[in-house]
Amino acid sequence: MSALISIRSLGKTYRRGNQPVPVLLGIDLEIAAGDYVSLMGPSGSGKSTLLNLIAGIDKPSSGTLLIDGVDIAALPENDLAAWRAANVGFVFQFYNLMPVLNAFENVELPLLLTPLGKAERRDHVETALAMVGLADRMDHYPNELSGGQQQRVAIARALITDPTLIVADEPTGDLDRQSADDVLNLLDRLNGELGKTIVMVTHDPKCAARARRLVHLEKGVLIDGGGEGH
Amino acid sequence: MKTGLSFSYVARNLYARKLTTVLTAAGMALVVFVFATVLMMAEGLRHTLGGTGSDSNVVIIRQGSQTEVQSTITREQANMVESLPGLATSPEGRARISREVLVLVNMPRKGSGGLANVVVRGTTANGLEMRPQARIVSGRQFRPGSSEIIVGSAMARGNVGLRIGDSIAFGMRNWDVVGVFDAGSSGFDSEIWGDGEQMMQAFRRQAFSSLVVGLRDEGSYTGFVEALMRQPQIKADVKRERQFYADQSEKLANFIGILGKTITIIFSVGAIIGAMITMYASVANRTREIGTLRALGFRRGNIVMAFIQEAALLGFVAGAAGLFAASFMQMIEISTTNVQTFSEVVFRLVMTPGIAFQVLLFSMFMGILGGVLPALQASRLEIVDALRSA
Ligand SMILES: Nc1ncnc2c1ncn2[C@@H]1O[C@H](COP(=O)(O)OP(=O)(O)OP(=O)(O)O)[C@@H](O)[C@H]1O
Ligand SMILES: [Mg+2]
């Protein structure tokens, strides 16, 4: 398999006041298309930072980051936004649904950035919601859904534009065991049936075990599972 | 290609904060109400005076005298005008000309106290026939050659409150009110009419105030004016009757307009600040939501537009509410002194589509002004920072 994500000596330093805070120190990592990687490590080790860089919502301080051959750090802001809309699906720990939109509309949201017409959008959204088992909850608002259901809506939203890459930052962090399993089963299917490349940050070893590959981060460096993988 | 957040997303965010939205909109609506009321006042005045008289009548006053009350026209001048071409004639063959005399008479205002300067117009049979819009609505017409008068409906209704059977003293005589006329809410409704010759005697006047001439047809205006200007005996200002009275509304209408706009601008600063506070709160409450939208691929521009639309919608809602409240002001009638003629004029506030449009636009503009800075702040956030916020 060819590498979808190719990371070379990637560094990220934040500034707090005029104090530099180095967070990622020379990461080397390749992730093949269709892989399912879980990123583990202690709190503050830089997992979210690395995931955000891969997802194109933050910019590296040094090193290179190619996704499908594209140097996303070099893209102008609006191009990068369009790139994200087309290539990345996001799953957040706290679901991040729009409270004023119902499940249907939340899932439809990314499609508003595409040329699809209303009828096509409806088809896509219905298919996605059916896939996550919420076809009967389309007109429910987030506050009318359980955490697990909200996260499934968020997963439907993440796959609605058929992106190559799905990033998930502690997607089960706020869920009970049963809901967490539902979410993980869904991610399995996205990877296994739809061939999505998934990068998931998690604290929970049980979750991490569901992935095909485990990468361990500590104090800004990969201590295990880095490089080209197994 | 559609590349933005839907309008319903924008509207529902406003609706989701019902209480804040209502309170902010109420503050803005108050300003809108004041603004609309002022415009309605100016419009009402223009409407009333601009609706006075007809385009086929011509008013002649002495050059430079501005109002009928200040003008004098001699009998000789009147006879000369009567002989000019272009005048209409009555079925009996009389030339359509009314020699009118106008005086201002002080009458006590009822509620507010003080005195009103009421226009008393001495007119003629011709004068009455040339103003068919003035219909007797109660009582009867005054008899020529008598001390009878009829009062305009606004003078019967309003502060002055004259009634049939009242006897009022002016020009060293008592005049009996025998009828009330209605002239379609025009300026004539603020006048008192009686026999012209009687009034000249009572006020010991030798000259008329104005001449009102009926044209054979509206097109003979230019020819008539040119013929009049060629006469050496008279230096006159001539206007079509409707224009003559419309022009009398300008000073007061402009004054009301300027005063109103000044007050509105001052008040609107408060309303804009209110909108700004509300929109800043909206941005602050939705920081993570903004980060999420940006991550999903919406651009800074989409975010700015969404918040500006939200602010504009807030302004629109406020505008509609203020306008609705102001529409009830159409029931209000104002009785005041026209600064241009020093005479009492009664008019009703009038709402027009133009005013509604102007006021809604103004209200949306207030909202947008209040929304610009918060919207820019929302778009300036870095995605990761926005996502990390609670
Ligand atoms: N925008 C920022 N500005 C300054 N420091 C930051 C910023 N974002 C992250 N950091 C710092 O970088 C370090 C790594 O943060 P990151 O969120 O990547 O950790 P994490 O591994 O995801 O931890 P957790 O498991 O608690 O989510 C932390 O010390 C954090 O305080
Ligand atoms: Mg994290």
UniProtKB/TrEMBL annotation, chain A:
Superkingdom field: Bacteria
Molecular function as annotated in GO: ATP binding; ATP hydrolysis activity; transmembrane transporter activity
Annotated TM spans: none
Keywords from the UniProt entry: ATP-binding, Nucleotide-binding, Transport
CDD domains, per the entry: ABC_MJ0796_LolCDE_FtsE
Alphabetized InterPro entries for the sequence: AAA+_ATPase, ABC_transporter-like_ATP-bd, ABC_transporter-like_CS, ABC_transpr_LolD-like, MacB-like_ATP-bd, P-loop_NTPase
One CC-aspect GO term: transmembrane transporter complex
Designated name of the protein: ABC transporter ATP-binding protein
Lineage: Bacteria, Pseudomonadati, Pseudomonadota, Gammaproteobacteria, Nevskiales
